[in-house]
Specification:
The complex is a heterodimer. Chain A is of the alpha/beta class. Chain A has 15 helices and twelve strands. In chain A, the strands form three sheets. In chain A, strands 2-8-7-6-5-3-4 form a seven-stranded mixed β-sheet, sandwiched between helices. In chain A, helix 9 runs parallel beside helix 14. Chain A is globular and about 80 Å long. In chain A, 51% of the residues are buried. Chain B is an alpha+beta fold. Helix content of chain B is 41%, strand content 19%. Chain B has a three-stranded antiparallel β-sheet with strand order 1-2-3. In chain B, strand 2 and strand 3 form a beta hairpin. The termini of chain B are far apart. The chains are: A alpha/beta, B alpha+beta. The complex binds pyridoxal-5'-phosphate and FE2/S2 (inorganic) cluster.
């Protein structure tokens, strides 16, 4: 029997769409020239990169020369943060970010703190929103950078980026947003948003892994990241990942063309899952905002049970999902995002993230709900916390 | 990441449940480490005639509870007291490094249940220590 596999972890990564792979293939096989070479094969590669750059710029509402290719979303985040901090450190050493950023932002910020920069972490409310008034208050004369993610990878909360960027702009502070999760789900336009720096990663929107991009608004001071050859206008040295870049542009174009239909598809699946789980499983909460969240993201906390056990049992049934639980990250602490929205430890440990994609169906949702009902009941039977709860309610 | 034995004891845990009027009950762990184990023992004539557990925790926590209770059933109290986390680990064909603390917790849950039994029997337990070192965080919240 073929193992039934239901992939619902699209926030972790996606497969490459066939059209995207087709666009990439020539640059993996016959058109393998180095874009820096001046002969035909080199020129073909260079042309492909230029076209990809223009394509991505068109999607984002940017100029091609504002698009810089990187080796991942993590690299784009690192570059944005360290590059802006070092280029502007004469103006000041204060950086503002939020408590629920991805580690690709939190860690470079922490690195800068160790290097002598000062950091303010903005808190979030119970649904994961940054309060614009908090940002307004946190900005000081020596603030040089604000970095707040567009959409959260765990609970899907979508921040009011336009408003937040506007506040930074008014005070003359550079604003970066990690749009890795937003891209492909939200029609991102950098002119409309007013951001200075924006990171994305191709593998989150049906493009290849290991390629990302940083949008850098014209005029923004940014230190180069990789030092070496003259690629990416001397800002990011290293022979370009030509097929990856081509694939990223093809994937983004497809995403923008289909975004409304895709959103509707995802929202339908998420609503079905949320409604059915609330109907059939007691003691569960939805983390993040019910509406202002990524359309394909659902994050539950099941009380009295632990996330890794839940994931393992789901895996045995073919359901590939994720959790904000400690045990999956190798540390004993539960997710910093779930703690930041105020969940107590025991509830943060019992979280489950399901992120839908284009191939998921309503049957998948129903199957997942059946599995969850059975597994949650089984784990609760095994849980001393549930036992205490039942006894307390009896007595 | 887990051995077949661990997965077997996780998917089909032995000895899940409670024992009514147990002779010894021990609970260790806390929400900070994300694992809580509760062990119930039935002890007759110094022999552990039954052992059951309830565990909140990851796959390794469930598997170590299951294996630890298996290993002490039918043993004398003194034998059970000597159960080490290493014995549990070996019986499970090992655990990933980050999960070793779960086996420590299982050892300590058994020790806590035995301590409870001895206290109920009026035996001096002042030299018995339980729950030390699985994660070091329990000092923060232990009552
Ligand atoms: C919000 C966010 N930022 C950054 C990253 C890192 O992207 P990449 O995997 O391309 O390094 C991820 C992906 O895990 C993410 O979800
Ligand atoms: S429960 Fe962590 S040290 Fe005892």
């Amino acid at each position: 029997m073929d193992r039934k596999l239901i992939y619902v972890d699209h926030a972790a990564t996606t497969y490459i769409k066939p059209e995207v792979l087709e666009a990439m293939k020539p640059y993996l096989t016959e058109l393998y020239g180095n874009p820096s070479s001046i002969y035909y094969l080199g020129r073909e590669s260079k042309k492909a990169i230029d076209e990809a750059r223009s394509q991505i710029a068109r999607c984002l509402g940017a100029q091609p020369q504002e698009i810089y290719f990187t080796g991942s979303g993590t690299e784009a985040d690192n570059w944005a943060i360290k590059g802006a901090a070092y280029a502007n450190r004469k103006k000041g050493r204060h950086i503002i970010t939020s408590a629920i950023e991805h580690h690709a932002v939190l860690e470079p910020v922490e690195f800068l703190r160790r290097e002598g920069f000062e950091v303010t972490y903005l808190p979030v409310d119970q649904n994961g929103f940054v309060n614009p008034a908090d940002l307004e208050k946190a900005i000081r004369p020596d603030t040089i950078l604000v970095s707040i993610m567009y959409a959260n990878n765990e609970i899907g909360t979508i921040q009011p980026i336009k408003e937040l960027a506007g506040i930074a702009k008014n005070k003359g502070v550079i604003f970066h947003t990690d749009a890795v999760q937003a891209m492909g789900n939200i029609r991102v336009n950098v002119m409309d948003l007013g951001v200075d720096l924006l990171s994305m990663s191709a593998h989150k929107f049906y493009g290849p892994k290991g390629v990302g991009c940083l949008y850098v608004r014209k005029g923004v001071q940014l230190e180069g990241f990789m030092h070496g050859g003259a690629q990416e206008r001397k800002k990011r040295a290293g022979t370009e990942n030509v097929s990856g870049i081509v694939g990223m542009a093809a994937a983004l174009k497809l995403a923008y063309e289909n975004i409304d239909r895709y959103n509707e598809h995802l929202r339908k699946l998420s609503s079905r899952l949320i409604d059915k789980v609330f109907e059939r499983i007691p003691h569960v909460r939805l983390n993040g905002d019910r509406h202002k969240r990524l359309p394909g993201n659902v994050n539950f906390s099941f009380e009295f049970i632990e996330g890794e056990s839940l994931l393992l049992m789901l895996d045995m049934k073919g359901v590939q999902a994720s959790s904000g639980s400690a045990c999956t990250s190798g540390s004993l602490d539960p997710s910093h995002v779930l703690l930041a929205i105020g969940l107590p430890h025991e509830i943060a440990h019992g979280s489950l993230r399901i992120t839908f994609g284009e191939k998921n169906t309503e049957e998948d949702v129903d199957y997942i709900v059946d599995c969850l009902e059975e597994i949650v009941a089984k784990l609760r039977q095994m849980s001393p916390l549930y036992e205490d709860f039942v006894k307390r309610n009896k007595g | 990441m887990y051995s077949e034995k661990v997965m077997d004891h996780f998917m089909n845990p032995r000895n899940v449940g409670e024992i009514e009027n147990a002779d010894g009950v021990g609970q260790v762990g806390n929400m900070k480490c994300g694992d809580i184990m509760k062990v119930y023992l039935k002890i007759e004539n110094n022999i552990i005639t039954d052992a059951k557990f309830k565990t909140f925790g990851c796959g390794a926590a469930v598997a170590t509870s299951s294996m630890a209770t298996e290993l002490i059933k039918g043993k004398t109290v003194e034998e059970a007291e000597k159960l080490t986390n290493k014995a549990v680990l070996e019986a499970l064909d090992g655990l990933p490094p980050a999960k070793i603390h779960c086996s420590v917790l299982a050892e300590e849950a058994i020790a806590a249940a035995i301590k409870d039994y001895k206290m109920k029997q009026g035996i001096d337990v002042s030299d018995m220590q339980t729950c030390q070192g699985c994660c070091g965080k329990c000092g923060e919240t232990r009552e």
